[in-house]
Design goal:
Elements lengths: L1 H4 L5 E4 L2 E3 L1 H4 L6 E4 L4 E3 L13 H6 L5 H8 L5 H6 L5 E2 L5 H8 L4 H6 L10 H12 L4 H9 L4 H12 L2 H17 L2 H16 L2 H12 L17 H5 L12 H12 L1
Parallel strand pairs: 1-3, 2-4, 3-5
Helix pairs in contact: 4-11, 8-9, 9-10, 11-12
Length: 263
């Protein structure tokens, strides 16, 4: 369906590590290919930031609460799970990529794909949908954690522990951003929202501390402020979504104008 919709599709090969900005330049493509080497994630909550580059738009469209799970935990997924979550369209072995590119030079995209795409190796998320959807549908991060802790098996409890290591502020803002993205609709509106949130992150302490702990000093021991979920108030979260006035990105307004002119 995607190939039929785009007469000149933007083909993105997501081979290897594709995280954060890498998702932004690939997962919005019209034909997105993953391989057995693909490792895809939006890990921003681990550095006190919030998924951007249209990430909250993509994750809001994932089935059930899989997008919420990926946004909050920053979990890395491989090919089959990327396909399940709508972050990719086709799988092919990495060994086929060179010949696929050669075929693209002389064949339509649909025909070139037909020569190389295969079924991916099994993923993990389909088997976890039950507890992911049940837990991550909760209205607050605190309730998500509580639901995870009472689930059977080690995976939900490990997920709760993962969340409790992330920036409390980033977790709450990210949950709100994904939920709002579901209601916003077009990508342009979500990008406008992400711009507001990203600017607010630059003035919050956790982004600086997260980058220090994960990238600079690499002690992996960030000192978040506030330090707990309970200390992050609704008013704290709302400040990240405050209108910017003349500083708004304005992509949604520009898109509306373009549509009116085209019509």
């Amino acid at each position: 369906a995607r190939i039929a919709h785009y007469p000149k599709p933007y083909v993105a090969v997501m081979d290897g590590i594709v995280m954060g900005g890498g998702v932004g330049v690939s997962a919005h493509g019209s034909v997105r290919i993953v391989t057995e080497r693909s490792r895809i994630a939006m890990p921003e909550t681990g550095i006190g930031f919030v998924p951007d580059v249209g990430g909250t738009h993509l994750l809001a469209l994932a089935p059930g609460e899989l997008g919420t799970y990926l946004a909050l935990t920053g979990a890395q997924i491989q090919a089959a799970d990327a396909l399940l979550c709508g972050l990719a369209d086709q799988y092919m072995p990495s060994a086929s990529l060179r010949s696929f590119v050669d075929d693209l030079a002389v064949l339509p995209v649909r025909e070139a794909l037909g020569r190389h795409v295969q079924d991916p190796p099994p993923g993990e998320l389909a088997g976890r949908r039950g507890w992911i959807d049940s837990c991550f549908s909760a209205g607050t991060v605190e309730e998500i954690v509580q639901r995870l802790l009472v689930q059977d098996g080690p995976a939900p409890k490990e997920t709760a522990e993962t969340l409790l290591r992330k920036s409390p502020t980033a977790l709450k803002v990210t949950l709100s951003a994904v939920r709002r993205a579901r209601r916003l609709g077009p990508l342009e509106r979500v990008l406008d929202q992400e711009y507001r949130v990203s600017l607010a992150c630059l003035h919050a302490p956790d982004l600086v501390e997260g980058v220090r702990a994960q990238v600079i000093d690499k002690d992996r021991n960030p000192q978040w402020s506030p330090a707990t979920l309970a200390e992050v108030t609704d008013a704290d979260v709302e400040r990240f979504f405050a209108p910017l006035g003349e500083r708004e990105l304005g992509l949604a307004d520009a898109a509306d104008i373009t549509e009116e002119v085209a019509w």
